[in-house]
Amino acid sequence: MVELDRKNFEEEVKNAEGYVLVDYWGPTCEPCKALMPHVEALAEEYGDKIKFCSLDITKARRLAIGQKVMGLPAIIIYKDGEEVERLAESEATASAVEEMVKKYA
Amino acid sequence: MIYDVIIIGAGPAGLAAGLYASRARLNTLIIEKEKAGGQIVSTDEVANYPGSVENATGPSLIARMEEQAKEFGTETILDTIKEVNLDEKIKVLKGEKGEYQAKTVIIATGANPRLIGCPGEKELTGRGVSYCATCDAAFFEDLEVYVIGGGDTAVEEGMYLTKFARKVTIVHRRDELRAAKSIQEKAFANDKMAFMWDSVVEEIKGDGIVESMVVKNVKTGELTEIVAHEDDGTFGIFPFIGFVPATDLFEGKINMENGYIVTDADMKTNIDGVFAAGDCRVKSLRQVVTATADGAIAAVQAEKYIDFLEGTEYGK
To answer: What is the domain range of residue A93?
Structure first.
């Protein structure tokens, strides 16, 4: 998975062609940490069709808010730099994320 | 394989049940849908669990409980149970990933945060509306935050949020807090905390992110719209107005009261071999300390029930 920060977000997500998934997380977010291995497993399986990235919001808070993310976990799929679907907070379960990924893979 | 005990839910009640059951040498499985912990993992400080060490957090306490249960042989699996058949001697639980069988079942499914139920709440969840302060506090650094509710959780989470937010306002439907006196004292002494009494949230508005909230004074009926400061563009809303038991799966199968499972003092439900422990059952105090006690009692009673079965036709 590509680790995002303020510097590379534009290039890796907004200017990227095709599908990009961003896993927004934070070090004090327990549900995020529980979800992460599932997302990593999906990256293994679908990494050739969707680019998987993660963003620690404590390092890029304003950037996250700019993407209208103010709750964790948030899993967003972008296509050609535009958001197409997101799962936030309690919706973002391992099985729901898998369903969403399959739709775009 | 037929387990002696299957526990649904790996919060404090389920993990304590696992510890006691596996120490009694029962084959014990805990089924959890996401990750061990339950509500307590979203708590930053656990100050009222007897013996909890200084700086104990919800996650650290749960990690120790989980380790302890596993040490004695409790197995755990991640799966979401979709269907249960509890009436026969062998209980069958159908999950998304597999089917599980056991002689006894301990239901420790806990409870989920209650929603305000107002327009805009669902749409703006994760976009300024949050139910987990430890998860989302960092977003609100130097912004304003409104905490809805006046109980222990609301006030404690509000105080936690003052470490990040510029100002935290408690919006409460009554004119005094319900939280424990010691918590109230701390809150009133905190100069980042403010209070809006006799008020309920009627609507949350915003284009993709929380921008304003309509609050009604329950005494006067007056509506006030709280709008985000121009420089901020947004603020946080954290509802902590109680919980709803996670018992949908058992509706019409087990005796309940307002969605909570009815048990006797031994945690027995109305079905033989089925017990309930923790926040999902009818009780007067829902805390970690009462959840773990429930779990221990349920496990000991499960053991007695199995002994009884094996002394009769079951053992033949």
So the answer is: 2-104
Which residues does residue B209 pair with via DSSP β-bridges, in sequence order? none
Of B37, B44, B128, the CB nearest to A70: B128
User: How many residue pairs bridge chain A and chain B with CB atoms within 8 Å of each other?
Assistant: 92
**Is the torsion defined by CA of B212, B213, B219, B222 positive or negative?**
positive
Q: Which residues of A are marked as active site?
A: 29, 32
In terms of domains, do B109 and B6 share one? Answer: yes
Amino acid making up residue B125: T
Task: State the CATH number of the domain containing residue A47.
Answer: 3.40.30.10
CB contacts, 8 Å: A32 with chain B = 135
The domain containing residue B77 runs over which residues?
Answer: 2-113+243-315
Predicted local distance difference test score (pLDDT) of residue B316: 40
Cα–Cα dist B150/B73, whole Å: 41
Contact between residue B184 and residue B154 where contact means Cβ atoms under 8 Å apart: no
B136 is catalytic: yes
Q: Do B131 and A64 touch (CB under 8 A)?
A: no
Mean pLDDT over all residues of chain B?
Answer: 94
- Structure tokens that stand for A24 in this block: 């927004």
CATH number for the domain that contains residue B161:
3.50.50.60
Q: What is the ipTM of this complex?
A: 0.87
Please tell me the distance in Å from B141's CA to the nearest CA on chain A. Answer: 9
**Tens digit of each residue's pLDDT (9 = 90 or more) over B67-100:** 999 999 999 998 999 999 999 999 999 999 999 9
Q: Which residue would you say has higher pLDDT here, B42 or B242?
A: B242
Count of domains for chain B: 2
In B80-139, the residues whose Cβ lies within 8 Å of chain A are 80, 96, 112, 125-132, 134-139
Question: Is the CB of residue B79 less than 8 Å from the CB of residue B31?
Answer: yes
